[in-house]
Amino acid sequence: MTQSVTLGVDIGTSSSKGVLVGANGAILATAVRAHEVSRPRAGWVEMDGRIWWDEFVAITRELLAAVPDAVVAAVGVSGMGPCVLLVDENDEPVRPAILYGVDTRAGAQITEMSQELGDEEIARVGGSLLTSQAAGAKMAWVAEEEPEAWARAVRLFMPASWLARKLTGAYVLDHQSASQTTPLYDIESEAWHNPWWQRFAAPIEQPTLGWAGDIAGHVTAEASALTGLDEGTPVIIGTVDAWTEAVSAGAHEVGDLMLMYGTTMFMVFTGAETLRTPSMWTTAGAFAGTRNLAGGLSTSGALTSWLKGLTGVDYPELLAEAAVSGPGARGLLMLPYFAGERTPIQDPDARGVIAGLTLDHGRGDLYRAALEATALGVRHNVETMRAAGADIRRIVAVGGGTQGQLWLQVVSDVTGLVQEVPQITIGASFGAAFLAASALAERDGAAAPVITDWNPVAQRITPTPELAALYDELYDRYLRLYAGTRDVVHELAADQRGA
Predict the structure, then answer these.
(1) String of b and e for 305-336 (b: at least 16 CB within 10 Å)?
(2) Where is average pLDDT lowest: 272-276, 334-338, 360-364?
(3) CA 75 centroid distance within chain
């Protein structure tokens, strides 16, 4: 006897993850493929886009073998973004994919485009100013710096749309991802901004636009032979992983703020109005009728992973030592800008700073300071969002980092926020499976699944009131430390680029 399931696969920064989900939201099997990004130069972060499809095929095969009686009724896809994967007329990548805001190579193009178009007009059309997150600026970088690759480029993909292409042959992109191709998308008309597309991306065919949960197409015979999925299985368009993760936790309603604990930290506030502020990202939502104000730290889990590798000590021991270190890390203060920083300072030349070090400090103090640094970065983003008009009513924490109770508690203590943690924190792959199930129900006229049934709240993390004054003072020092070290750090960043 067979059982109907949905498949969700997410292409992340450090791994690809897949999940088979039953009709009631039960997880039947999971699979993971770890990978690494390439950093060929300071500020460059790339990945071979062909790996995304190879890992999708391997994950799907593994999941189907793990649940032999499963019949996949619909496929959900998701992935990191905004990325720039340019391919030729045969869908062969013309160069490695340029990743999202952690890749800071397009500084010159951002300056040139901003001067030509004007910041006010860029924000009016697209919602956001040009930053390292802007995929349109990275396309301009390829055009200027790698003209041979640009001359062969015909189409633009991101991980989710690449999987949809390989599975169905459709050339589509969701509105949320498109709104991060600044300045190529008009956020109010929810369409490509043709004058600027012709100016900066003319050789590239415009992808057809849709919403994350729309059906992109159906599995082709060729894709069926490779993956084991039945020919004709519907595949959704999908979207960027942070937005899919918000769906997985039910954090996509108006007034919700999602905190995604991963290799980087991502924050997505959902509202009904378009909020604009120079230091954050204004985007279309994953669903029609919504807008997002989003932000992201360039390091979070990447910072703790760096410390783990540096010390050679496993996470449980480091966490135990960080707990002993206590609030304030025995007088240490860290800026988490080890890969530059995205929001709200938008400074690709920022660098990590550890202040207050003495010979008495140990690895537990450093680890505690790293946890507090990411929490201080979250607070900086939240306060910037609220200043821009975000009416944050509910905070939901998702991602692999939610498995660490200490990290969650530190973020609540530093920010003063209550965080809700869902029962299932597997992430964007689960959200992609949910979107696939929703699309199937809509197509068939059936009752739509409810995410709170699939994934109820498991715990609430509340701030510790007696630590508020300590962290208020530490936050003030955090802001002053960046301002006080910025000039020297920028000089060091220039030296690093020249090395």
Answers:
(1) eebbeebebeeeebbebbbebebbbbebbbbb
(2) 272-276
(3) 20
Mind listing the pLDDT tens digit for each residue in 365-393?
Answer: 999 999 999 999 999 999 999 999 999 99
**Residue 264's pLDDT is what?**
87
> DSSP assignment of 50-119, as one string?
HHHHHHHHHHHHHHHHHSTTEEEEEEEEEE--S-BEEE-TTS-BSSPEE-STT--TTHHHHHHHHHHH-H
Question: CB under 8 Å to 97, separation ≥6 — which residues?
Answer: 46, 47, 48, 49, 83, 84, 85, 159
Of all helices (H) and strands (E), which one includes residue 157? strand 155-157
C-alpha span between 437 and 445 (Å, rounded): 12
| pLDDT tens digit sequence for 265-309 | 989 999 999 999 999 999 999 999 999 999 999 999 999 999 999
- Nearest Cα to 266, choosing from 274, 256, 258? 258
Non-local (6+) Cβ contacts of 5 within 8 A are 20, 21, 22, 23, 28, 67, 70, 71, 72, 73
If phi > 0 it is left, if psi is from -120 to 50 it is alpha, else beta; for residue 127 that is left
Extract the runs of DSSP E, i.e. beta strands, from 163-315: 172-174, 185-186, 191-192, 208-210, 215-218, 234-236, 239-240, 256-261, 265-271, 281-284, 291-297
Of 105, 94, 90, 93, the closest CA to residue 135 belongs to: 105
Q: What is the pTM of this model?
A: 0.87
Query: Both tokens of residue 84?
Result: 């720039």
CA distance 261 to 267: 9
List pLDDT tens digits, range 159-199.
999 999 999 999 999 999 999 999 999 999 999 999 999 99
Ordered DSSP codes for 412-474: HHHH---EEEES----HHHHHHHHHHHHHHHHHTPPPP-HHHHS-EEEEE---GGGHHHHHHH
- Taking the C-alpha atoms of residue 196 and residue 190, their distance in angstroms, rounded to an integer, is 15
Residue with tokens 């990548």: 93
Indicate the pLDDT class of residue 426, thresholds 50, 70 and 90: confident
In a 10 Å sphere around its CB, with 0-12 CB exposed, 13-18 middle and 19+ buried, how is residue 58 labelled?
Answer: middle
Question: Sorting pLDDT into bands at 50, 70 and 90, what band is 75?
Answer: very high
- Determine phi and psi for 465, rounding to 5 degrees: -55, -40
CA 186 to chain centre: 21
SS3 153: coil
Whether cis (ω within 30° of 0) applies to the bond prior to 82 is yes
The two beta strands, 155-157 and 97-98, are unpaired
Report the chain's C-alpha Rg in angstroms.
Answer: 22
Integer Cα distance of 410 and 471 in angstroms: 10
DSSP string covering 177-191, please?
HHTTSTTSEETTTTE
Token pair 């450093």 is found at 366
Helices 159-168 and 50-66, packing angle to 10 deg: 70
